[in-house]
Design a protein that fits this description.
- The chain has about 325 residues and is of the alpha+beta class.
- The protein has two domains: about 140 residues, Butyryl-CoA Dehydrogenase, subunit A, domain 3 (Up-down Bundle); about 170 residues, Nuclear Transport Factor 2, Chain: A.
- The chain is about 50% helix and about 15% strand.
- The chain has a seven-stranded mixed β-sheet with strand order 1-4-5-6-7-2-3, sandwiched between helices.
- Strand 4 and strand 5 form a beta hairpin.
């Protein structure tokens, strides 16, 4: 950078970047499913912007989106490569191992949840959730290939033209369109759109916890969609991820009954903008975060994070008594 670049110029440059930071964080979070990695990607974009002469860039927002998207794409590719590495001998069919419900690219990794108490406004989070991005949608996006995810996020969620996405993923515009279409079909098939009425969502979730607490299987089945899917991420074990994927109202209801004793410790929360719960034991230790996707009054998906390491890293002070 020019040695004569003034401090005033740097301040102005930083202010210009800050005007785009919210959108860049939103793009990166949707691509990576990690708040910390999204922040790192945006910071990387700032460093590249800070040392680049952008005076000839007509669409700075588009240029910055491309920069942060390229950073995210590299992270996604590195992540996919790690997940494809073989496990140690003997771990062939544990939950999360190859062939099981959590095999490579298909394991139900629960992305970082965005939490807040109901009725509490969080302007910074509102920017991240400017368009609905429920946890179920984020979980399904974890199963997309890096190129599919970039194409889907940029085009379907941020209206970036295929012609601008294609060079980023080294595809033609037509191939990029096909990738986004394939991703869209998978997302629509596995991540139903939540009921827009938060009150209706909360009614279903409260009914779920009441039925679980009472051990009422019939009431649980009644509040669950017949094809409900339960995905739980317990973190990484010695040889594989401790993951669970269950489907069907009867099966999920049976599992929920086992959680009945935890119902009194469930604190209502908004998880990625939809009704959910933070479960904290009487000793103050976080036990789980549960996100519910409610469609037409019935629970269609339940996504649960129980990984102790990730739970302990979250600020849950707002949900403790």
């Amino acid at each position: 950078m020019d040695e004569n670049f003034s401090s005033a110029g740097r301040i102005a440059s930083a202010e210009v970047f800050e005007a785009h930071r919210g959108r860049l964080r939103a793009v990166a979070y949707r691509m990576l499913g990690s708040v910390s990695e999204a922040e790192d990607a945006v910071q990387d974009a700032w460093l590249r912007y800070d040392r680049t002469d952008t005076t000839g860039v007509e669409n700075l927002g588009g240029w910055l989106t491309t920069v942060v998207s390229r950073v995210c794409l590299n992270l996604l590719r590195a992540r996919a490569q790690r997940r494809e590495e073989p496990l140690e001998p003997g771990g062939a069919f544990e939950p999360g191992g190859p062939g099981g419900p959590g095999g490579p690219l298909g394991e139900p990794r629960i992305p970082d949840p965005l939490l807040r108490r109901e009725g509490v406004v969080d302007p910074e989070q509102e920017v991240l959730l400017a368009d609905e991005v429920g946890l179920a949608l984020m979980v399904v996006m974890e199963s997309l290939s890096p190129a599919e995810r970039v194409a889907f996020v940029l085009h379907d969620l941020f209206a970036v033209p295929f012609e601008e996405i294609a060079p980023l993923i080294e595809k033609t515009a037509a191939a990029t369109r096909q990738l986004a279409s394939r991703a869209r079909r998978r997302v629509r098939g596995q991540a139903p759109t939540p009921d827009p009425d938060l009150g209706r969502q909360r009614v279903a979730v409260d009914a779920f916890f009441a039925a679980a607490r009472n051990g009422d299987l019939d009431a649980l089945v009644a509040v669950l969609d017949p094809d409900v899917v339960l995905r739980s991420d317990g973190g990484a074990g010695v040889r594989a991820r401790h993951t669970v994927v269950l489907s069907g109202a009867a099966t999920v209801a049976g599992q929920a009954v086992l959680w009945g004793g935890l119902s009194p410790f469930a604190r209502p929360a908004l998880v990625n903008g939809t009704a959910g719960a933070v479960v904290i034991g009487d000793n103050g230790r976080p036990l789980s975060i549960m996100a519910f996707t409610v469609v037409d009054g019935a629970i269609a998906a339940i996504d649960v994070l129980t990984d102790p390491e990730r739970l302990n890293a979250l600020d849950l002070s707002a949900f403790r008594p």
